[in-house]
Amino acid sequence: MKKYYLSKNYVNLSNAGNKAKTDIEFILLNRGFTNIGLRQTCIKNELSGFILTLMGVLKACISISEGSWLVLQYPLKKYFLFICKFARLRGGKVITIIHDLGSFRKGRLTVSQEIKRLNNANCLIVHNKKMESWLKEHGSTSTISCLEIFDYLSEKSPKKIIDADPSFNIIYAGALSYKKNAFLYKLEEYVRNFKFTLYGSGFDKELLRGNINYNYKGFVPSDELIATADGHFGLVWDGDSISCCSGIFGEYLKYNNPHKTSLYIRCHLPIIIWSEAALADFVKDNNIGICIDSLEQINDILSGLSKEEYDAMRSNVVEISRKLSQGYYVSKALGEVFCKVGEGELIKV
């Protein structure tokens, strides 16, 4: 039985979404899958990248054979339907790993259009149980397996925690502009008995009133962040409110797995996450952090956290980090989906 995946041109490898996709390609390669397209490239010229990806897609369509399995990573723009239909014509089957649902964030597809598109895949690997339920409620007919959390590959090792400073340091990495995450600026009056360190682009210090507990580090590549991050928690939050994750991005948190969560874990940082986020269940079940209803609670929660409680979370994070570094969760999800379709011998975790 032949197992394939399709590589493509990635314009920007520092992008979180592309990092997740290239990690999965590497994991698939090491689990016995073969790249059916052209080799992975990183060409920033849009026309050249388009041509290379198109050539890879055409090569894949010609090469796929009866009884073979092809893993696609979604979204794949205009090529997804074409490849799925061609694979079916040639007797192949498609497993689609979902990274992003366009009907949620960008609105370029309606929900019904996206579900109809995804139903062209035989199997789906989705972020979590809440995304699975949402897809089924809206008409998904594919066999589904859940990822739980994105793996995160890096050869870098985190720093050892230093306990000389009695106050906690919370790290936030991501888009820092007021337009994208206004909560960062509204949180200032509540950052009292902890430090708040920000990594990313677009931060406007002029909008703050000078809280000395804020520390802006600028954009740092993920490998460097893993090696240098000096903190106690990683914050998973989005939107313009500190009382909940509001707006489009807040609603999306109820169903998706933010890649930054995996980055924090690879930094050996326990997680602070909105209690209604889909990943809150994973954080709670594995005791790797704290689930909160509002950011206004942070001071009181941290004040009541014992060293023993924190050390237990940190220890669990280190174990999950080890799994993320080895591609455990992608491998497990693939194994589960193959078992569901009666071909469990095709991959071992």
TrEMBL record:
Organism annotation: Bacteroides sedimenti
Keyword terms of this UniProt record: Transferase
Coiled-coil residue spans: none
Protein name (Swiss-Prot/TrEMBL): Beta-1,6-galactofuranosyltransferase
Cross-referenced InterPro entries: Gtf3_C, Gtf3_N
Domain Glucosyltransferase 3-like N-terminal stretches: 3-148
Domain of life (superkingdom): Bacteria
Residue ranges annotated for the Glucosyltransferase 3-like C-terminal domain, each copy included: 170-336
The keyword Hydrolase belongs to this UniProt entry's keyword annotation: no
